[in-house]
Design brief:
alpha+beta; three-stranded antiparallel sheet
């Protein structure tokens, strides 16, 4: 357990940079788990799910493989992690040797996502959607629909956050994005 080091000193501990500690930290940050601790020996992670069930993960040497070790995440794994971080999904599993991801939504619908490179539609970096641009677009659509006073105030707030995006704190950014998504679905 990491109880040997208080939370403020956890980063200073000799174990602060081990994989079990990183795994426990990732689980603690997830809304699906109540608690997670790494074993002092460095090979076990104990965690409790939101439903109250206790589990243990034991790190073991990986099976030998001819695959090269990757210096960064595989794109499908990064996509799966991003999908899994969304509250609307309960699983997102990337296939290690294929360009596919299996996902399951909270309403029990499963999908197989196939990743393919689209060589014909290269998008210029300035044409890519950004969170700030998405907020401004949602505000513009709201203003174009003869808004009420409260809708006008909402649009003005979204425009302000979009214009000052780099200066805003992440929680405010996330709330503004959620508001913009809600406006798009109405």
């Amino acid at each position: 357990m990491t109880a040997d080091f208080p939370p403020s000193d956890r980063d200073k501990s000799p174990q602060a940079d081990t994989d079990p500690v990183r795994i426990a930290d990732a689980l603690r940050r997830s809304p699906h788990f109540r608690a997670a601790d790494a074993d002092p020996n460095g090979d076990t992670v104990r965690f409790t799910t939101d439903a109250g069930t206790n589990y243990t993960l034991t790190l073991k040497p990986a099976e030998p493989t001819d695959d090269d070790l990757l210096p960064e995440p595989v794109l499908t794994e990064a996509i799966a992690a991003a999908i899994l971080n969304h509250p609307g999904f309960v699983t997102a599993d990337a296939s290690p040797h294929e360009d596919t991801i299996t996902i399951q939504s909270r309403n029990q619908v499963r999908h197989l996502l196939a990743l393919a490179v689209d060589h014909g539609n290269a998008v210029a970096p300035e044409d890519l959607s950004t969170p700030a641009l998405d907020l401004a677009l949602a505000a513009d659509k709201l203003l174009a629909s003869e808004p009420s006073d409260s809708e006008r105030a909402t649009a003005e707030l979204l425009n302000y956050i979009a214009a000052t995006w780099d200066k805003q704190h992440p929680p405010l950014r996330e709330h503004a994005q959620a508001l913009a998504r809600t406006l798009r679905t109405q």
